[in-house]
Amino acid sequence: MKTTLLDPLRSELPGKSFFVALTFVDGSGHLLDQHQTSGTVESLTEDGFLLIRQQDGSLFRLPADPQIIRIATPGEYRVRNSGARVLNPDYLGQWEVTVRTAGELERYREGGFPLLVAS
Q: Would you kindly state where each structural domain of the chain is located, as residue ranges?
Protein backbone atom coordinates (compact mmCIF):
# COMPACT_ATOMS: atom_id res chain seq x y z
CA MET A 1 0.00 0.00 0.00
CA LYS A 2 1.25 3.49 -0.92
CA THR A 3 2.19 5.80 1.98
CA THR A 4 0.68 9.31 1.98
CA LEU A 5 0.99 12.48 4.05
CA LEU A 6 -2.37 11.59 5.60
CA ASP A 7 -1.21 8.27 7.08
CA PRO A 8 0.00 9.76 10.41
CA LEU A 9 -3.33 11.60 10.76
CA ARG A 10 -5.27 8.40 10.02
CA SER A 11 -3.95 6.83 13.22
CA GLU A 12 -3.67 9.99 15.38
CA LEU A 13 -7.01 11.74 14.90
CA PRO A 14 -9.86 9.25 15.48
CA GLY A 15 -11.37 9.81 18.92
CA LYS A 16 -9.73 13.22 19.35
CA SER A 17 -11.65 16.44 19.96
CA PHE A 18 -11.50 18.98 17.13
CA PHE A 19 -12.40 22.68 16.89
CA VAL A 20 -13.35 23.85 13.38
CA ALA A 21 -13.35 27.43 12.07
CA LEU A 22 -14.66 28.25 8.59
CA THR A 23 -14.32 31.68 7.00
CA PHE A 24 -16.59 32.29 4.03
CA VAL A 25 -15.58 34.75 1.32
CA ASP A 26 -17.03 35.72 -2.03
CA GLY A 27 -15.21 35.47 -5.37
CA SER A 28 -13.45 38.79 -4.67
CA GLY A 29 -12.18 37.62 -1.29
CA HIS A 30 -14.59 39.75 0.77
CA LEU A 31 -15.63 38.31 4.11
CA LEU A 32 -19.21 37.02 4.10
CA ASP A 33 -19.51 35.01 7.30
CA GLN A 34 -17.68 32.85 9.82
CA HIS A 35 -18.74 29.56 11.37
CA GLN A 36 -17.28 27.43 14.14
CA THR A 37 -18.18 23.98 15.32
CA SER A 38 -16.56 21.19 17.27
CA GLY A 39 -16.81 17.51 17.88
CA THR A 40 -14.92 14.24 17.95
CA VAL A 41 -13.06 12.90 14.94
CA GLU A 42 -14.81 9.75 13.83
CA SER A 43 -12.57 8.82 10.91
CA LEU A 44 -10.36 9.91 8.06
CA THR A 45 -11.89 8.61 4.84
CA GLU A 46 -9.96 6.97 2.02
CA ASP A 47 -10.69 10.01 -0.16
CA GLY A 48 -9.01 12.33 2.37
CA PHE A 49 -11.84 13.81 4.42
CA LEU A 50 -12.21 14.08 8.19
CA LEU A 51 -15.58 13.07 9.55
CA ILE A 52 -16.29 14.90 12.79
CA ARG A 53 -19.22 13.87 14.99
CA GLN A 54 -20.74 17.12 16.26
CA GLN A 55 -22.42 17.51 19.65
CA ASP A 56 -25.88 17.07 18.04
CA GLY A 57 -24.81 13.71 16.58
CA SER A 58 -24.50 14.88 12.96
CA LEU A 59 -21.35 14.44 10.89
CA PHE A 60 -19.30 17.39 9.63
CA ARG A 61 -16.96 16.78 6.69
CA LEU A 62 -13.61 18.55 6.19
CA PRO A 63 -10.64 18.10 3.88
CA ALA A 64 -7.81 16.50 5.87
CA ASP A 65 -5.06 18.96 5.02
CA PRO A 66 -1.92 18.34 7.14
CA GLN A 67 -0.91 22.00 6.63
CA ILE A 68 -4.16 23.25 8.19
CA ILE A 69 -4.70 20.77 11.02
CA ARG A 70 -2.85 21.83 14.16
CA ILE A 71 -2.50 20.64 17.74
CA ALA A 72 -4.63 23.10 19.72
CA THR A 73 -3.16 25.34 22.38
CA PRO A 74 -4.84 24.43 25.68
CA GLY A 75 -7.61 26.82 26.62
CA GLU A 76 -11.20 27.81 26.02
CA TYR A 77 -12.53 28.20 22.48
CA ARG A 78 -15.96 29.69 21.71
CA VAL A 79 -18.43 28.70 19.05
CA ARG A 80 -19.61 32.16 17.97
CA ASN A 81 -23.07 31.31 16.71
CA SER A 82 -24.11 29.35 19.83
CA GLY A 83 -21.82 30.77 22.51
CA ALA A 84 -20.84 27.21 23.47
CA ARG A 85 -17.46 26.78 25.09
CA VAL A 86 -15.00 24.13 23.98
CA LEU A 87 -12.35 23.41 26.59
CA ASN A 88 -8.94 22.12 25.56
CA PRO A 89 -9.68 20.56 22.17
CA ASP A 90 -6.94 18.23 20.95
CA TYR A 91 -6.80 19.70 17.42
CA LEU A 92 -8.05 22.66 15.45
CA GLY A 93 -8.22 23.78 11.87
CA GLN A 94 -9.29 26.87 9.98
CA TRP A 95 -10.47 26.72 6.37
CA GLU A 96 -11.29 29.61 4.02
CA VAL A 97 -14.17 28.76 1.69
CA THR A 98 -15.15 30.73 -1.41
CA VAL A 99 -18.90 30.53 -1.98
CA ARG A 100 -21.13 31.83 -4.78
CA THR A 101 -24.56 31.82 -3.15
CA ALA A 102 -26.22 32.06 0.27
CA GLY A 103 -27.54 28.52 -0.25
CA GLU A 104 -24.05 27.19 -0.84
CA LEU A 105 -22.80 28.93 2.31
CA GLU A 106 -25.64 27.39 4.34
CA ARG A 107 -24.84 23.89 3.05
CA TYR A 108 -21.23 24.28 4.25
CA ARG A 109 -22.46 25.48 7.65
CA GLU A 110 -24.76 22.47 8.00
CA GLY A 111 -22.44 19.63 7.04
CA GLY A 112 -19.05 20.86 5.96
CA PHE A 113 -17.52 20.20 2.57
CA PRO A 114 -19.68 18.39 0.01
CA LEU A 115 -18.87 15.12 -1.67
CA LEU A 116 -17.49 15.72 -5.14
CA VAL A 117 -19.06 13.36 -7.63
CA ALA A 118 -17.35 12.81 -10.96
CA SER A 119 -19.71 13.14 -13.92
A: 7-111
